[in-house]
Write a structure and sequence with these properties.
heterodimer, A: 2 strands, 1% strand, B: mainly alpha, 3 helices
Chain lengths: 491, 102
């Protein structure tokens, strides 16, 4: 396939969200000297405007759905779903950041610019149909997130989180790339559609290439992507990074990059590697089970709320891997629905943590939430909705997410994985319920007594995801129908 | 005289991957870990260019340029993070970074 560098107007429209974000990210840094004043919220407002515009761009791009730039991008329902999801995650990260950054005297343009760049990378990942684009998107997203994790330069914990995230993240990228290089050698192409044709033996080059090559490549890429979504046994970095990073950044890391990496995961394994599905299924099966078990059991023992949410996010990555193990269109749709529900409930829970953490992030322990129900009923009520959804209680998005995933797994005859997954959900209920008991059945402690009233941004950051969670729990069909329609990826 | 074939390049690249991986997993100095990661990225580049030559296809070389660019960006950010940490802790040993654990 010869490289073609021409492009037309439709290509540019399909690339609209990334363009808007890149321009705005650059603009934020240029405008820094003009807008930078103490207590100014201009950067936050501009970022939210950019993200809303990018959502519009993503929807408009979907009206012109199709491949762009010679098949390197694939703007379809799947891409649009994940683009909108990461953009919403971006908005829900910035809303609690207003108050959080003001409290730490750390409001700067680079925080917002890095966030915007990271989201641009994630939008690119969502639409990538070519391993070069996957790689570039992954790196734009990751490099910006490494810096964000270490945003508090003078805080040793933040430094350490950034370094750990950086070392393990770039190690994972290197593995992923080695797998990509092998795919290129074996199939002669880095385009997912073209490589799939060769792997399934329908390529122009005749019979399928040596399965060993493809198998090793799939394993290496699985390791690389597994690291990025914090799936076991590659999860060790997640608790340290979430604990050390500034809370809104931890919220972002647990939702945005994870959703975008799962988009890439699903697209690569459900298109390019689908012909060798029976080969990688045991690998993903094992990783799914290990993630759920390690995540839930380790979360039981945590005293720090951010570490607990980190282990819970490892467990949730396991549930999504269950959907991938199902290797079906229903499974892909279930994974998409689950990631949307998960992003909303998790980012909401982190917003509550960032509200309570206080100056210098002093209050991070589970005991610090005691008596929240008495002093701040709204915060406690919203946090309760998120925790109930994380457990998977009916009427919340988390319930239908789990329900569809295990339904898809059963349809693919993964009986044991379903049974073990459901047992895991029961274990998980314990540590989420412990938080609820802490909030409603204990007397207020120092953290809650010192808590400031909810600011407007935080109020929005709690109420919007709560509404979303309930909406997904009460009217799941409209999202699920879209996911089901989009899950038939271009092959 | 044996001609150098694609296989030789692949063996070299696999050896670099191995050295890099062992380096990341066993060394304690963060700068050396960084160098080991760079080694793996260069293993990738050798692979890409060897395949590009064997397949008479230019995509691999273009990909290698992207990988080189990314390696530079990563090194810049990595060293920046390390300097920030060194200012606060005065160490570059990975096993002394133990504030975050349970």
């Amino acid at each position: 396939m010869s490289a073609s560098f021409g492009f037309n107007a439709a290509d540019l429209i399909r690339f609209l969200p990334e363009t808007i974000l890149t321009v705005m990210g650059t603009l934020l840094m240029v405008l820094d000297p003009i807008l930078h004043r103490r207590g100014s919220h201009a950067f936050g407002h501009l970022s939210i405007a950019a993200l809303v515009a990018a959502i519009g761009g993503a929807v408009y791009a979907y009206t012109q759905a199709g491949p762009a730039f010679g098949g390197m991008l694939m703007v379809d329902g799947f891409a649009t779903f994940f683009r909108v999801l990461v953009l919403v995650v971006g908005i829900l990260t910035i809303l609690p950041s207003y108050r959080f950054l003001a409290r730490q005297d750390a409001e700067t343009s680079e925080y917002h610019a890095l966030l915007i760049f990271s989201i641009a990378g994630q939008c690119l990942m969502a639409a990538a149909n070519d391993l070069i684009i996957v790689f570039i998107g992954l790196e734009i997203s990751s490099i910006a997130s490494y810096v964000l994790a270490g945003y508090f330069r003078d805080d040793k914990r933040s430094n350490e989180a950034a370094l750990k995230y950086f070392l393990l993240g770039s190690f994972a990228t290197a593995f992923f790339l080695y797998g990509v290089a092998l795919i290129y050698g074996a199939t002669g192409s880095v385009n997912l559609t073209a490589a799939r044709a060769v792997i399934s033996g329908q390529g122009p080059g005749g019979p399928a290439p040596a399965p060993v090559f493809i198998g090793v490549a799939a394993a290496l890429m699985f390791v690389g992507l597994g690291f990025k979504v914090s799936a076991a046994p590659f999860q060790i970095w997640a608790p340290d990074v979430y604990q050390g990073a500034p809370t809104p950044v931890a919220a972002f890391l647990s939702a945005g990059p994870k959703a975008a990496t799962f988009a890439v995961f699903l697209r690569i394994f459900m298109t390019m590697f689908e012909p060798i599905g029976s080969g990688w299924e045991p690998l993903v099966w094992f990783s799914a089970l290990l993630s759920m078990t390690i995540g839930n059991f380790a979360a039981l023992m945590q005293t720090n709320i951010k570490r607990m949410l980190a282990y819970s996010s490892i467990a949730h990555a396991g549930y999504v891997l269950v959907a991938l193990t199902a290797r079906s269109q229903v499974g892909t749709a279930a994974a998409m629905f689950y990631l949307a529900a998960y992003a909303l409930m998790n980012i909401g829970a982190f917003a509550a943590v960032s509200h309570l953490s206080g100056r210098g992030e002093r209050y991070q322990n589970i005991e610090d939430f005691s008596g929240l129900g008495q002093k701040q009923p709204l915060t406690a009520a919203m946090l309760s909705i998120f925790l109930l959804s994380l457990i998977g209680v009916p009427l919340t998005g988390g319930f239908f997410g789990k329900f569809y995933i295990f339904k898809a797994a059963l349809e693919s005859h993964l009986v044991w994985l379903t049974v073990l997954g459901l047992l895991n959900s029961a274990v998980a209920a314990y540590y989420y319920l412990r938080m609820l008991v802490m909030m409603y059945m204990h007397e207020p402690g120092e953290a809650v007594e010192n808590a400031e009233p909810l600011s407007l941004g935080l109020r929005a950051a709690l109420i919007l995801p709560a509404l979303g969670t309930l909406l997904l729990g009460i009217f799941p069909t409209w999202v699920l129908e879209f996911a089901g329609k989009s899950a038939a990826l271009v092959k | 005289m044996h001609p150098i074939t694609t296989f030789h390049y692949l063996a070299l690249s696999a050896a670099l991957l191995l050295i890099g991986t062992v380096g990341v997993l066993t060394r304690r100095n963060v700068v050396i870990i960084l160098m080991s990661i760079e080694l793996i990225l260069n293993a990738v580049n050798i692979n890409l260019i060897a395949f590009s030559h064997a397949l008479h296809n230019v995509n691999g070389q273009i990909f290698a340029i992207f990988v080189i660019t990314d390696a530079v960006a990563e090194a810049a950010v990595g060293l920046g993070i390390l300097i920030a940490l060194f200012r606060n802790k005065e160490t570059v040993q990975a096993d002394e970074m133990d504030l975050l654990k349970w």
